[in-house]
Design a protein that fits this description.
- Helix content is 67%, strand content 0%.
- The protein has 118 residues and is mainly α.
- The N and C termini lie far apart (81 Å).
């Protein structure tokens, strides 16, 4: 014999249960709702914590595009002001960008990029 208990709920909740339970009994319907709510499906769990490969690639492409546009802006802004930057400074910037690109593409997960502004 199963152990039975009494649950006191508001009349409005009981009416919603009765309106939506169909052919199920009240206890069956409540048990079904509780199981459905507590059941953790892998799809729900995966959607909450992870991004897809395609979403990550899109994000990476957008970040690269943003960085390129920012670099283009600063270069064109410097050219518009008429400041002639020394060739060594430009070469230093180019070499640092190539080093950064090589470091980021090496596959190490723990790389940081630091930019020093003058």
């Amino acid at each position: 014999m199963s152990d039975k208990r009494m649950l006191i709920i508001p009349a409005a909740v009981l009416k919603r249960i009765d309106d939506n339970r169909g052919d199920m009994g009240q206890a069956e319907f409540i048990e079904f709702l509780i199981n459905a709510q507590l059941q953790e499906t892998p799809e729900k769990h995966e959607e909450q914590q992870y991004v897809t490969r395609e979403e990550f690639r899109t994000f990476a492409d957008d970040v690269k595009s943003l960085l390129k546009r920012a670099l283009d802006f600063f270069v064109s802004y410097g050219l518009e002001l008429g400041k002639q930057s020394p060739k060594t400074e430009f070469e230093e910037l180019t070499s640092r960008l190539h080093e950064l690109e090589g470091d980021l593409s090496s596959g190490d997960d723990r790389k940081e990029a630091k930019i020093k502004w003058k």
